[in-house]
Amino acid sequence: MRVDVVSIFPEYLAPLDLSLIGRARARGMLQLAVHDLRTWTHDVHRTVDDTPYGGGPGMVMRPEPWGEALDALAPAQAPPPRLLVPSPAGARFTQAMAHELAAEEHLLFACGRYEGIDQRVLDHAATRMPVTEVSLGDYVLFGGEVAVLVILESVTRLLPGVLGNAGSLDEESHAHGLLEAPVYTKPPSWRGHDVPEILRSGDHGRIARWRRDEALRRTAERRPDMLAALGDLDRRDRAALE
Ligand SMILES: N#Cc1c(-c2ccc3ccn(Cc4ccccn4)c3c2)n[nH]c1N
């Protein structure tokens, strides 16, 4: 997978050199490049913003630098990338979207700042590539860089070979529509708190049942919306919630 990220703060994306994403890049599973939007400015002050038409607070990112950046990173003669634009007005980012993005050949992220990017940038891009505005959640950030870090981490861990134990992908939260069960490791007792006996029993059938029960209980308590999305539960699952 190829990923290009455009930002006026490229150093914000430095964590993409670390840990599993850094290893995926070193192993050639992910070709990632971060670009400074000011590369595509031509004035002495390298200006990327201007006042908003119609008035209002803050500044808006000018279309010209973005137009040239997208022309350079999504040339007409190559297969078009999928353009992702983090935005408070975007569609909520979900694990399902992470799976969708993990199947793409080329992702191009546009990190806005200020009050956002001139809408015409997205409208013009949409004439030649798929464009998705995406939001992490109902709160407001300073810009899109943090969202790119989150999105890229969730997508990269889905790429074949990146996670050593593929099994962990199958059992993780949101993979089955439930929150994860609690996890424990040694010692068996710590500051008066013991590991649930069932987890040390070696009875894998009962352990799997216990984990599902705990996942159901946690989901019912913390994310009733996720439980509702599961639809009708079978008798055994309903019993776990009684
Ligand atoms: N993803 C995501 C986001 C963002 C986000 C993403 C990109 C930009 C570019 C500028 N701003 C600041 C800003 C403030 C006010 C109105 C518009 N824009 C961003 C915020 N906020 N919250 C999320 N879940």
Name a few traits of the molecule:
alpha/beta, 242 residues, 34% helix, 9 helices, two-stranded antiparallel sheet, binds ligand JD2, five-stranded parallel β-sheet
How would you describe this structure to a colleague?
The protein is of the alpha/beta class and 242 residues long. 34% of the residues lie in helices and 17% in strands. The protein has helices at residues 19-26, 63-73, 95-102, 119-125, 145-156, 167-171, 204-222, 224-230, 235-240; strands at 2-7, 31-36, 49-50, 60-61, 82-92, 106-110, 131-135, 189-190, 193-194. α2 (63-73) runs parallel beside α4 (119-125) and α7 crosses α8 (224-230). It is elongated and about 70 Å long. Bound molecules: the ligand N#Cc1c(-c2ccc3ccn(Cc4ccccn4)c3c2)n[nH]c1N.
Secondary-structure topology with pairs:
Blueprint: E1 2-7, H1 19-26, E2 31-36, E3 49-50, E4 60-61, H2 63-73, E5 82-92, H3 95-102, E6 106-110, H4 119-125, E7 131-135, H5 145-156, H6 167-171, E8 189-190, E9 193-194, H7 204-222, H8 224-230, H9 235-240
Parallel strand pairs: 1-2, 1-6, 5-6, 5-7
Antiparallel strand pairs: 3-4, 8-9
This protein binds ligand JD2.
Ligand JD2 binds next to strand 5 and strand 7.
